[in-house]
Design a protein that fits this description.
Layout (H helix, E strand, L loop, with lengths): L6 H11 L12 H13 L12 H13 L5 H21 L1
């Protein structure tokens, strides 16, 4: 089995799918930046408050977008895994 994709590569893969996302400071850890971008995506913080979708719908739409992207299978698996972790963390905090 292939080695896990490194964190910098995952962040770059994510930005290839969501190319209009603003990245945080370059000095931050790539996994932290990626988790924060995913959190903002799931909470729909990039949309107007009246146009926001529920978190479960955003999760489904985001995972579908990742799985249908041209990323490698390993990149897809790793990014979806991070989505699941962030999704669970959000739900646990409510």
């Amino acid at each position: 089995m292939k080695d896990k994709v490194n964190e910098r590569t995952l962040l770059e893969a994510y930005t290839r799918i969501w190319n209009n996302r603003k990245l945080m400071k370059e000095k931050e850890e790539p996994l932290h930046v990626l988790s924060e971008l995913i959190r903002r995506e799931l909470l729909d913080e990039n949309a107007h408050p009246r146009a926001r979708k529920p978190i479960h719908e955003k999760f489904r739409l985001s995972v579908n977008r990742v799985m249908e992207s041209p990323l490698t299978d390993e990149e897809k698996r790793e990014i979806v895994s991070i989505y699941r972790t962030v999704h669970e963390r959000i739900l646990a905090s409510k």
